[in-house]
Amino acid sequence: MKHYIMDLFQLTYFIEVAHKKSFTKASKSLHISQPSISKGIKALEEHWGVQLFDRKGKNVELTETGSYLLPKIEELIKGFTQLNEEMESPQLLNAGKLSVGVPPMIGSSVIAPFIAHFINKYPKIELEMKEVGSQDVVFAIDDGLIQVGFVALPITTEIPYEFFIFHEEPLDVVLWPDHPLASQPSLTLSDIKDETFVFYPSGFSLNPYLRSAFQEIMAHPKIVCRSSNWDFLAQMVAGRLGISLMPHTICQRISPDLAVSVPLVQPHLYWTLALIWKSKGYLSHPSRTWYSRLKIISRMPTRPSRVPQPNILTFQRSRSRCPHHCYRQQKKTKFFHISMITVPSAPWPWKRPA
After folding, report:
1. How many CB atoms are located within 10 Å of the residue 167 CB?
2. How crowded is residue 298: how many other Cβ atoms within 10 Å of its Cβ?
3. Contacts of residue 214, Cβ cutoff 8 Å, sequence gap at least 6
4. Which one is predicted more confidently, 311 or 44?
5. pTM of this prediction?
6. What is the CA radius of gyration of the chain?
7. Is the pLDDT of residue 350 over 60?
8. Could you give the CA distance from residue 213 to residue 245 in angstroms, rounded to a whole number?
């Protein structure tokens, strides 16, 4: 049998001609040229091998076959129209299942309020949070296990990704209360370069970022212990195992009896969080809704300049494309580096923009 792709417009032409009993009247009603309608009807007749209309001068009448097909075609068009309306309805679009990757260190401190907001706003979307590190979030998206995920920048990936920065705050120096530097109003990286540190696991994105910052001042921090738990890091600082660098909001949660925080002012280092998804990849409606709500809630400002940071996202393929209009691409010998448009150093004490 000859393959044929039926055009819904042709079926619409058939219905209108059947009701108007005239190609001319159907043409005026549909605002379609009469030759186009005649061509569409002829295509249907040739495909089915039947005659649909008995042409009598300017008027036409349905044949027996045409009369048989008319209610069936009308039901088909009605069903398609109803399906199209349902697919565009908010009730259907704002439903389904959404799996989101989130590093544990991000989820407990920043994402939880947004998750609560999203569940209240879209109760028909079943939400599943997959707790993995930032680099594993990238791997999960690459493998198709999830469509979107949260990461702490910088990250390294082999394929193009798009991302939206929704949260950023400065890093503080965390010391035990009677540390010689604890009473200082602010500290520089050079002030603490010879200290002993308790840091994050090697797979965490803050590590290459901080390591690069120390390399800028020709220093190599001595790390005695690592943990992915903010509270445990604070306890180790309190036990005088070493000092640490933590986001400002995390420092505010630490009891002053355990540890104190001092602003790091030279250079200003930031904890930068982003939602990431595969460039040009398919995003379900729940995934797009998640992104759009996060964009509305975060209200992250665009700033003109900042002390340069290490490259936020590195593509290891030489032909990767810039994933986001807010980012600029710089070609190197073997890599493409995506560097965030710089923003000014945040005033101290740091406050969330209104």
Report:
1. 23
2. 17
3. 189, 193, 220, 221
4. 44
5. 0.62
6. 31
7. no
8. 12
Which one is the CATH code of 168-270: 3.20.20.140, 3.60.40.10, 3.40.190.10, 3.90.226.10? 3.40.190.10
CATH code at 8-87: 1.10.10.10
Judged against a pLDDT cut of 50, whether residue 141 lies above it is answered with yes
The answer to whether the CB of 346 falls within 8 A of the CB of 330 is: no
Token readout for 272 is 């930068």
Tokens of 269: 């280092």
Q: What is the per-residue DSSP string for 225-241?
A: EE-S-HHHHHHHHHTTS
Strands 96-102 vs 125-131: parallel, antiparallel or unpaired: parallel
* 3 state DSSP class of 30: helix
Residue 268 is which amino acid? H
- Cβ-contact 185, 239 below 8 angstroms: no
Separation of alpha carbons 225 and 196, rounded Å: 10
- CB neighbours of residue 214 within 10 Å: 16
Which tens digits make up the pLDDT trace of 231-250?
999 999 999 999 999 999 89
DSSP helix, strand, coil percent of the chain (3-state; round to 5):
40, 25, 35
Q: Are 151 and 137 in contact (CB under 8 A)?
A: yes
Mean per-residue pLDDT, 239-263: 94
- Alpha helices, H only, 228-284: 230-238, 248-253
To 5 degrees, how large is the angle CA 91–CA 94–CA 99?
Answer: 150
Averaged pLDDT for residues 167-187: 95
Within a 10 A sphere around the Cβ of 66, how many other Cβ atoms? 22
Quick one: pLDDT at residue 232? Answer: 93
- Quote the tokens at residue 283: 């995003």
